[in-house]
Amino acid sequence: MRFVDVTGSREAAGRSIRLLDMARRLPQLVRRSLGLAWRVDRPATVGLLACQTLSGVVQAMGLLAISGTLTALLSSGDVLHRLVQAWPSLALLAGAAAVRAVLGITVSWLSSRLGPLMTREAEQMLLDGCTGVELCAYDEPDFNRDREAADRGAQVTGDLINEGQDLIASAASFLAGAVVLAGVHPVLLPMLVAASLPQAVAQVSAARVRYLANLRSNGDYRLLAMLRWHIYTKDAADQIRAGTMAGFLSGRYRQTVARINREDRAAADKGARMSLAGAACGGLGSAIVWAAVVGLLATGRISVGHAGTAVFALQTVGQSVRGLVSIGSRAMRTGLYMDDWTRFLDRAGGFRMRRGTCRPASPERIEIEAVCHRYAGKGGDALANVSLTLRRGEVTALVGYNGSGKSTLSKLACGLYLPTEGRVLWDGTPTGDADPHALWQHVALVPQDYARWPLTVRENITLGQPSSRGDTAVREACEAAGADEVVDKLGAGLDTLLAREWLNGEELSGGQWQRIALGRAFFRQAGLLVLDEPTANLDPRAEYRIFQRLRDLARDRIVLLVTHRITNVAVADRIVVLDEGAVVQEGTYQELARQPGLFRQLLSYQVTSDADDEKQPGPGLRRR
Ligand SMILES: Nc1ncnc2c1ncn2[C@@H]1O[C@H](COP(=O)(O)OP(=O)(O)OP(=O)(O)O)[C@@H](O)[C@H]1O
Hints:
By secondary structure, this protein is of the alpha/beta class. It folds into 2 domains: 22-351, ABC transporter transmembrane region fold; 365-454 and 527-610, P-loop containing nucleotide triphosphate hydrolases (Rossmann fold, 3-Layer(aba) Sandwich), CATH 3.40.50.300. 64% of the residues lie in helices and 9% in strands. The protein has 20 helices and 10 strands. It has helices at residues 9-15, 19-40, 42-74, 79-131, 141-184, 188-216, 218-232, 237-242, 246-298, 304-347, 406-413, 436-440, 457-462, 471-481, 484-488, 510-523, 540-553, 589-594, 598-615, 619-623; strands at residues 365-373, 383-391, 395-400, 421-426, 429-430, 443-446, 528-532, 558-562, 574-579, 582-587. α2 crosses α5, α6 packs antiparallel against α9 (246-298) and α6 packs parallel to α10. The longest helix is centred in the first third of the chain and has 53 residues, at 79-131. The relative contact order is 0.09. The model is unreliable at 616-624 (pLDDT under 50). The structure holds adenosine-5'-triphosphate. The site of adenosine-5'-triphosphate has 13 residues, from α11. Adenosine-5'-triphosphate binds at residues 139, 375, 378, 382, 400, 402-408, 448.
């Protein structure tokens, strides 16, 4: 059981991390991190840049002060005279150190302020991106994989500001040291950079190895997240216990963790070997540079004071080159994750809603014309050549076996899916040409798996869009759905929070939740009401009330009802029977009940099972 990256495109991207590639992309990364920082907090971004620039300048001044101090101290004359001569340089040195310390603290304060803001902003942008994709995106494995990768990218966005800042600091420090070193003797700087190259190559290679290992474990990380969710949330807690599944699930978890650990260990070992080889070559290179300094001093090409300055400058430049490479490779890895995030935002996984701009009115007629629909990755059509007209004032019922395409057809009527072939027309406008949000203003949908929002009852009914009539409208909708009885028993009425796990929250039964879900559909003044198995969890009295109300509701809207309760579909003006994605019968209850066909078959099963129920006393009756 493993999630698989079908295209392998991310692995290919990971393999492309090379030193030159990194050098090319680092400025991009810094720019991108600064761009996001600018978006969330401009003064802090300006402050950061100013502090870093100042810090580099101060460091260069400090190095020059070292040169001045050493030259003064090593010159001839008595000690007091030499100290007096060295005094201004010493003061500059101390001042530079103090200013750098203050700047360092300011930089870390500003970075810690910006980092979390950037992460939250990146998450928000991702959420906005997700709500703007076509519903069919969720049926595509690639979309789900890209979305999860983008989520990880959003999480690490905040790290990039620290890494970006460290990079700028190392670059400033490198520049300061390089200027001073080049002043001491021009041969030293290129020698030092050449000596640092092996370490740079090793560090980048090690970062690539770690990123690729992480990429290979990506599917396993997703699996762990899924298992964790099922193991520790309430949803399946009863079934894990009653089904004694705990051992099986944690065994699966352990197996997956073991796979990740194996990958991690192999990457860590390989990375360490690379770093060791790089460090050995780097050490040899450094020894050559130091030997060059000694050679220059011995041959009188540089003074003792300059040699002392070279020592400090070499240390500074060496440290900053190592910093540039190690932070650079870390930033590169973060950048690859961030690439996943930006790529997702740019294309919304390739599923951004791009429909028309027509703003349809509340529909009088919905015409479904020769519609075929095929889900992603499926070999056959869920709907094949379906034609149907839904009219305001009518209740149309869809019936058929499981998987016959009823829910798919209802979602096409709502414009949630666009048909792969054929058209769905709202008063003549194809759903693909309409502004989707304007179209959904006219839709009230109770799907089979309705959401149980952890919000108050009121918000669960209004979906955060209260009407001008306030609670009166909410109460009317509750009454229509039979949810008034539920609300009356709740401690805080409409203000009750429907989330048991939170303080003062309440839990509802399955049927009570269904009444709330119906209440929210009745509250919405929408021209199309779609009820998919609206009474599956209701008791017979509540079910009776709902079906009684349907006729009233249909007076000024189109009602589409999907149900397996065949005896109840008599309420519908028209019944459409689906079988394997095709319409096989259409007519009134009386017409279809008389004709031989699937409807009569379905009806006979239900009537027989109802009659059997009547004949066979329940267990309680038998006991008596
Ligand atoms: N999101 C999806 N991705 C892929 N296939 C899907 C998806 N939703 C439904 N299907 C497939 O489409 C076909 C029709 O499903 P649909 O949910 O429309 O049937 P239904 O008649 O509503 O079934 P039921 O009575 O069980 O609710 C089924 O074969 C199902 O497997």
